[in-house]
Design brief:
Layout: H1 10-30, H2 35-54, H3 58-78, H4 80-97, H5 102-106, H6 108-111, H7 115-130, E1 135-139, H8 146-149, E2 153-157, H9 161-167, E3 178-182, E4 185-191, H10 207-218, E5 222-226, E6 233-237, E7 240-245, H11 247-257
Parallel strand pairs: 1-3
Antiparallel strand pairs: 1-5, 2-4, 3-4, 5-6, 6-7
Helix pairs in contact: 2-3, 7-9, 7-11
Length: 259
């Protein structure tokens, strides 16, 4: 007699739930990028391999098995940025939940921009927006972004509205590129940022916006963009872009993330 009843343990439910979460997070990471097509291709090959194994097709199953055996390294290489974003996301959540650590007690005032500095940055962005002055400002968080700081001109100066506006003045030799603010100081200007490869980014947005999204995909920084064409203020974090935000909304976003 065939037993038609399937026994489902509590651990099986947890197993399915965890796998679903992993696939959902992977989909979020690759959504809107070229990597999504690659991921779907790998997933289809994996399904074919499972079917081949169930049909006991030894030769084809062996070939596909060997392919997946060495494919882990290939996947890490192909999905290098996505793996980095995933690990960064896990690390950021872990650090956010460490409320009573010594690091949280002593390092925030040095790593994050102070409240006065945030007001200064937002006021500079508001004035540049009114004058249609293009700007790209990076606000570091846990990562000090030293590899990107070194691509530009070292400044290491106090944060002032006048200095920010003078750097992004269109005839300034430092206006082309990004300004990086870290450890509550303007560290560097004319810095080079990675460009996002997302396919869903509006063609209306320029290279400044793509660079902002690109850096926020790879790091935990927030990046502010002031459009030279429209004067709109945008902010990018965690690979997402909020376009055409007001100065007041920008300040609220920054204050909520740089406590």
């Amino acid at each position: 007699m065939i037993d038609l009843f399937i026994q489902v343990r509590f651990l099986d439910v947890i197993d399915i739930f965890l796998v679903a979460i992993i696939f959902y997070e992977i989909y979020r990471l690759v959504k809107g990028t070229v990597a999504l097509s690659i991921f779907m291709g790998i997933f289809i090959i994996f399904i074919v391999w499972l079917v081949v194994k169930s049909l006991k097709m030894e030769l084809l199953g062996s070939i596909l098995g060997q392919l997946f055996g060495v494919g882990v390294i290939a996947i890490i290489i192909v999905f290098q940025q996505e793996v980095r974003r995933f690990l960064l996301m896990l690390g950021s959540r872990y650090r956010t939940n460490r409320r009573f650590s010594l690091e949280n007690l002593f390092s925030n005032q040095f790593k994050f921009a102070s409240k006065d500095s945030l007001h200064t940055i937002v006021e500079a962005c508001r004035q540049m927006s009114e004058n249609n002055t293009g700007a790209l400002i990076v606000l570091a968080r846990e990562s000090e972004l030293q590899e990107y700081v070194e691509t530009g001109k070292n400044i290491d100066a106090a944060i002032t509205s006048e200095l920010i506006k003078s750097i992004f003045f269109k005839n300034s030799p430092l206006h082309d590129g990004a300004m990086i603010i870290s450890l509550n100081r303007i560290k560097s200007a004319r810095c080079i940022l990675p460009i996002s490869q997302k396919l869903e980014i509006s063609p209306v947005l320029g290279l400044r916006h793509r660079a902002a999204i690109g850096l926020s995909e790879q790091t935990d920084a927030f990046v502010i963009v002031v459009s030279e064409e429209s004067g709109h203020i945008s902010i990018s974090g965690n690979g997402d872009l909020m376009d055409n935000v007001s100065a007041d909304d920008l300040l609220k976003i920054l204050e909520s993330n740089y406590k």
